[in-house]
Write a structure and sequence with these properties.
Blueprint: H1 18-53, H2 82-102, H3 115-130, E1 143-145, H4 151-161, H5 166-170, H6 205-222, E2 233-238, H7 245-248, H8 251-256, E3 262-268, H9 283-294, E4 297-301, H10 308-313, H11 318-325, H12 328-335, H13 339-345, H14 351-356, H15 362-366, H16 375-387, E5 393-398, H17 423-433, H18 439-444, H19 459-470, E6 504-505, H20 507-519, E7 528-532, H21 545-548, E8 550-551, E9 571-572, E10 578-579, H22 584-595, H23 597-600, E11 606-612, H24 617-629, E12 634-639, H25 658-663, E13 668-671, H26 676-691, E14 701-705, E15 711-712, H27 722-727, E16 730-733, E17 741-746, H28 751-765, E18 768-773, H29 777-793, H30 803-808, E19 815-818, H31 823-827, E20 837-839, H32 851-858, H33 862-875, H34 882-890
Parallel strand pairs: 1-2, 2-3, 3-5, 4-5, 7-10, 7-11, 8-9, 11-12, 12-14, 13-14, 17-18, 17-19, 19-20
Antiparallel strand pairs: 6-15, 16-18
Helix pairs in contact: 2-3, 2-4, 2-19, 3-16, 6-22, 22-24, 28-33, 33-34
Keywords: Magnesium, Metal-binding, Oxidoreductase, Pyruvate, Thiamine pyrophosphate
Catalytic activity: N(6)-[(R)-lipoyl]-L-lysyl-[protein] + pyruvate + H(+) = N(6)-[(R)-S(8)-acetyldihydrolipoyl]-L-lysyl-[protein] + CO2
EC number: 1.2.4.1
Length: about 900
């Protein structure tokens, strides 16, 4: 056979038996004629599956034609009153747009978005009326991730439901100036605590968080904590949003775990914020290929019912071909023009398609809707998604951005930024939505056209409310009542308080060992969720594998290579550990879902997410911000912390700034403990704050930095200053003897350097030093700012002293501060230190070297503290300045090889 006999689009030779092939095709034609396109699709999918089993090497087709997945003859009956539902959908559309429009009135001008909800109204309303279950439903309710820019539509619906007032709509985006009626711009649970459940407007976080919410639902059910297996997660997303790495990066997780309790609804209005998503391409086709390749069930809703007749008459596929080859940029342009333009520039490109619409008026052509605006098409897709088992489903729904808002909005590149309407726009929109408001009412004040509500007793409103009653209550809604937890007792935190004797133990190991004890506490331990991004062995947490086991809904269906070992890798559907792989973004999403289970499901989980400290707040800081918005409660552990403790790893692993990044998150309580007993008290206080029931602000995340460098852990001192540990500073070693005095402040792994400096100052220079462990520079700063704010606003009252000032006001001498972080970490507290303050810090990039050499390079080690202390005393006139140079020479301070602070143990 020559090369000319090959089909260039085939993986094999040309048809070897055309007659036999024709018989198979005829058989398929007859099947479709007799039983419909849906049955034909089922047969073909079955044949493709069987061809794979027979190893025929037939490639799976990644995309289908640019038409609806569900054929019109296979659509289920629509169960509602479409006319009534259309009526109040129009009212919601009107009130949503007017909410944003009124927010632009003179003197306010706070912005907002009209066009996103306008494109998605039908997608939401089919769900609200027929699918989305509230929290009073026997299933426990669904979780809905509303698209952030569509929030005015949810407010408008809540207004018709009687949940929000006109005053609240008028205080849109005026949370403080409009108090107590102010409502936030987007879905912000922290700002509207009984309404929103999930923050989504940081685009890309909604998709990944929805995936891990669905996974957490299965986790709760598989572990026997709560049966929420029937609870469904719906995520409403934009087609432009799907370009975010987080939007697509975890799709395989949903497929691998068989999350058939998850549905993505992608509002494919073909536009992102500035213009087309894929002007030269087709975003729906691209996403279909991507999702199908990731293992998802894909349902396309491209065309409304008005196209059904045209497609049925398209006997030779000319219309189908036009649909397939027309790029999105043209589709956008069509909806910004008119029916005549569409006739000429779409149908007119082929005489056969032009003939299909020759009897249509331009108005009829203009009213050929996209599928995402057709209730019946959307209902069919949602029903199919709910009935599909074994895979997550994505619904790709084609819509028009700004739909119904008039020619100045629909499909325009600038429609996302358009916030208000002209008087003519308002009148046209009023007419389109059939709102009973007069011209005079609109002309009276075009900046404040009236909202519309027919009254609570209107039959349409009653129908609307009845739909929600049947589905289990209003949505969105957030609740905070949860089952009570029996918290661990003091004895359960005791192990780190004993110290390590002669054994060298890193704070990471002290924490991990304490956590092992907490996992065993009956009635509490099963609520702990260790979340590990493929570093369990690094952190010494592989000891959890045999007992707690790794969560996998599919179990462990292979023979483990380490099955004979004591610490064998064990997976189970009842496993407690969420082992998410090399995947910080997924781990943070898992943290968010588990950390808010107390609210979402009324069942508290205590996530312990442990990671390389450099890859926490730096890598996924936006996700932690969303977790804070969602009022997450849990622990994030930055292990292998510090710029110099992770020997040999180099620049990208050397964390010198994570406490600063953590300080930017108002819901993060950050600690840098030095000793195991400090870790113990901090964790106990955190658990009691979050779930003890008495703290005024339990909605926090505790961030602890812990280290892989081992040293001898001291036992907890008698009469230990627990208050100081929790507030941020306590004295761990008091200097004795006569001589000039200095105060040495350090945190984390830096405290042993301060102890070393204390000894050198006394031995070599006759200087007495006190050593303070600063467990939290950040919390000391927050306390200081609070004291300053009080004194600023209450000048008539006795001035308050910050906690730091109170602790140090009787301490003598200059204050020297160091840590394994950059200067700015220590500099946070400067203004509340009652004396001369000097800091050392590891500024600049980290690098691979020994700990001692790195610390000497950055001048943060024990001898560097000594020199800095001598400088402080010389500045105060208590020592001759020549002593400083003598000390630099004595310790060979410029020689990195002369460094002595630290050891070579605890390799990563």
């Amino acid at each position: 056979m020559t090369v000319h006999d090959q089909d260039p689009y085939s993986q094999g030779p040309l048809d070897s038996d055309p007659e036999e092939t024709g018989e198979w095709r005829q058989s398929l034609d007859e099947l479709v004629d007799a039983k419909g396109h849906g049955r034909g699709r089922e047969i073909m999918l079955s044949m493709l599956k069987r061809s794979k089993e027979l190893h025929l090497n037939v490639p799976m087709v990644p995309t289908t034609d640019y038409i609806n997945t569900i054929a019109s003859e296979n659509e289920p009956e629509f169960p509602g009153d479409e006319e009534l539902e259309r009526r109040y959908r129009h009212w919601i559309r009107w009130n949503a747009a007017i909410t944003v429009h009124r927010a632009q009135r003179p003197g306010i001008g706070v912005g907002g978005h009209i066009s996103t909800y306008a494109s998605a109204a039908s997608l939401y309303e089919v769900g609200h009326n027929h699918f989305f279950r509230g929290q009073d439903h026997p299933s426990g309710g669904d979780q809905i991730f509303y698209q952030g820019h569509a929030s005015p539509g949810m407010y408008a619906r809540a207004f018709l439901e009687g949940r929000l007032t006109e005053a609240q709509l008028d205080a849109f985006r005026q949370e403080k100036s409009g108090a107590p009626n102010g409502i936030p711009s987007y879905p912000h649970p922290r700002m509207m605590r009984e309404f929103w459940q999930f923050p989504t407007v940081s685009m890309g976080l909604g998709p990944i968080n929805a995936i891990y919410q669905a996974m957490t639902n299965k986790y709760l059910a598989n572990r026997g904590i709560k049966d929420v297996a029937d609870s469904h997660v719906w995520a409403f997303l934009g087609d432009g949003e799907m370009d975010e790495v987080e939007s697509r990066g975890q799709l395989q997780v949903a497929a691998n775990e068989g999350l058939d309790n998850l549905t993505f609804v992608i509002n494919a209005n073909l536009q992102r914020l500035d213009g087309p998503v894929r002007g030269n391409g087709k975003i729906i086709q691209e996403l279909e290929s991507y999702f199908r390749g990731a293992g998802w069930n894909v349902i396309k809703v491209v065309w409304g019912r008005e196209w059904d007749d045209l497609l049925a008459r398209d006997s030779d596929g000319a219309l189908l071909n036009l649909m397939n080859v027309t790029p999105d940029g043209d589709y956008q342009t069509y909806k910004a023009e008119n029916g005549a333009f569409v006739r000429e520039n779409f149908f007119g490109r082929d005489e056969r398609t032009a003939a299909l619409v020759k009897d249509y008026t331009d108005d009829q052509i203009w009213k050929l809707r996209r599928g995402g605006h057709d209730y019946r098409k959307v209902y069919a897709a949602y029903k199919a998604a709910m009935e599909h088992k074994g895979q997550p489903t994505v619904i790709l729904a084609k819509t028009v951005k700004g739909y119904g808002l008039g020619p100045h909005f629909e499909g325009r590149n600038a429609t996302h930024q358009m916030k208000k309407m002209t008087l003519d726009d308002l009148k046209l929109f009023r007419d389109t939505m059939q709102i009973p408001i007069t011209d005079a009412q609109l002309e009276e004040n075009p900046y404040q056209p009236p909202y519309f509500h027919p009254g609570a007793q209107d039959e349409t409103i009653q129908y609307m409310l009845e739909r929600r009653r049947e589905l289990g209550g209003f949505l969105p809604e957030r609740r905070t009542k949860h089952v009570d937890l029996a918290l661990p007792e003091d004895k359960d935190y005791a192990f780190p308080k004993k110290g390590s004797g002669n054994q060298e133990v890193a704070t990471t190991m002290a924490f991990v060992r304490m956590l092992k004890d907490l996992l065993r506490v009956k009635g509490f331990g099963e609520r702990i969720v260790p979340i590990i991004p493929d570093e369990a062995r690094t952190f010494g947490m592989d000891s959890y594998f045999p007992s707690a086991k790794i969560y996998n809904p599919n179990g462990q269906n292979y023979t483990a290579v380490d099955r004979e070992l004591l610490l064998a890798y064990k997976e189970s559907p009842q496993g407690q550990i969420m082992h998410v792989g090399i995947n910080e973004a997924g781990a943070t999403a898992a943290f968010t879902a588990t950390a808010t289970s107390y609210s979402t499901h009324g069942e508290p989980l205590i996530p312990i997410y442990i990671f390389y400290s450099m890859f926490g707040y730096q890598r996924t800081g936006d996700a932690f911000w969303a977790a804070a918005d969602q009022m997450a409660r849990g622990f994030v552990i930055g292990a292998t912390a510090g710029r110099t403790t992770l020997t040999g790893e180099g620049t990208q692993h050397a964390d010198g700034h994570s406490p600063l990044l953590a300080s930017t998150n108002p819901a993060t309580v950050s600690y840098d403990p030095a000793y195991g007993y400090e870790v113990s008290h901090i964790v106990q206080a955190g658990i009691e704050r979050m779930y003890g029931g008495s703290h005024p602000d339990p909605d926090v995340m505790y961030y602890l930095t812990v280290y892989n460098e081992p040293f001898k852990q001291p036992a907890e001192p008698e009469n230990v200053d627990v208050e100081g540990i929790l507030k941020g500073i306590h004295r761990v070693s008091e200097g004795t003897g006569e001589g000039p005095r200095v105060q040495l402040l350090a945190s984390g792994v830096g405290v042993p350097w301060a102890i070393e400096a204390q000894e050198l100052l006394a031995k070599d220079w006759g200087v007495v030093a006190d050593v303070w462990s600063v467990t939290s520079w950040n919390e000391l700063r927050r306390d200081g700012l609070a004291a300053d704010e009080h004194n600023f606003l209450h000048p008539e009252e006795e001035p308050k002293l910050s906690y730091l000032t109170q602790k140090l006001q009787s301490a003598d001498g200059p204050f020297i501060a160091t840590s394994d972080y950059m200067h700015a970490v220590q500099d946070q507290i400067r203004q509340w230190v009652p004396g001369d303050f000097y800091t050392l810090g590891a500024d600049g990039f980290g690098f691979a070297d020994t700990r001692a050499a790195a610390r000497r390079f950055f001048k943060i080690d024990g001898p560097s503290m000594v020199v800095r202390a001598l400088q402080g005393l010389a500045d105060q006139g208590k020592l001759d300045r020549s002593v400083i140079a003598q000390a630099i020479s004595k310790y060979d301070l410029h020689n990195v090889n002369a460094g002595t602070s630290g050891n070579a143990g605890g390799e990563s």
